[in-house]
UniProtKB/TrEMBL annotation:
Listed EC numbers: 1.13.11.93
Segment forming the signal sequence: none
Entry similarity comment: Belongs to the 2-oxoadipate dioxygenase/decarboxylase family.
Pfam families, A to Z: HGLS
Superkingdom classification of source: Eukaryota
SMART domains: DUF1338
Keywords associated with the record: Dioxygenase, Iron, Oxidoreductase
Protein name per the record: 2-oxoadipate dioxygenase/decarboxylase
A single MF term (Gene Ontology): dioxygenase activity
Coiled coil: none
Cofactor or coenzyme needed: Fe(2+)
InterPro entries: HGLS
Organism of derivation: Prunus avium
Amino acid sequence: MRLSRMLPLSSSAINNGSHISSSTLPPSFYSLTSRQPSINPKNPITRNFISLNKSSFPPRKYSIFTNKQNMSTVCSSKSDNGSHDSPFQGGESFFREVLSSMEAVYLSRNPTAKAVLELVGSVADDQICYDHFAFRTFGVNGYGIDSMAKFFLDFGYTPREELRFPAKKLRALWFSPPSVPTPHGGSGVNGPLPRVFVSELLVDQMSPETQDIIRKYTGISGSGNKHAALASALGSLTWEKPLHSEFQQLARESEYAAWTLVNGYALNHATISTHQLKSRLRDIKNLNQFIEKNGFKLNSEGGTLKVSPDGLLQQSSTVADSILFQFSDGLTESVPCSYIEFAERLVLPQYSNLPLEEVQEHHRRDGFEVGNADKIFESTSKEQLTRKAA
């Protein structure tokens, strides 16, 4: 297995904020020609506003949550074979290039995600398929779920279930991908299209101080909510860099709010579909042991393995990487970035007699669970970031 968009970013890259471009942009975006040295996955990395030269990237082989009463179906249609049948709309190659750019930013900032993808893919030369991509948003003034969802809806994604997280003051909606043939051997963003999970902070439920800060920066952004997907693909904030004191205020009240203030629409996490692996790592328990044995720390909130009440959705995740962020007042602090998740979807009882080689994705447990997702959110929490590895 080969990963593309391998984006090492040096720790000297600092001082200018929180933006990084991807290699799918036109040539005019590429102004920085110096190559960056390799990074140490164990150390925090810094984030800056730079444009990368296309030659910095290797040739592309492939680009690289339960509380049922809180879950209500928004839209769900299945074809006769059990799959969700919504046709792809628009240019597929363009859509996949945007996903590739989102992935590129994600890999450049999160050495753990990059290393884990390489590590898992190296076992039996396996190919990686993504279960879902997840994004965080501010639920105010059009900057919430709709801002990111619009891009995916335009290309044929279907809204499915809403999930509520009262303690965290969050809501989320997930979207199933459209039907599109997958090229033989396609993997990563060139494989089966991922589900999309978009959450939002219920800003109106926050303290007046926190509301004022969030409304200040979304207000500064103007119409930036209309360009959420572009911001994600570029790795750019649509608002200005905040003051350090404002970040601290949000962090005291909501880790989610603080994360979103400095990361914006950047990909919060990508999820490996473990059951689509060919090696013994298709069993998520084996995968978790393998990841920890290789020195990576897993999110321990609620146990390393998060299991839905029906036992058919099993999830785990690494702890987020940290990155140095320079605030508008010149102060620099390490802030949480993103992480990588793993999901195994087991075969539904009605299909238990199918031979393994005949089992397809629509034969497996779909959707998300509030209980699982609530604990996965903790992957970016200070408690998990500062916890010593087992």
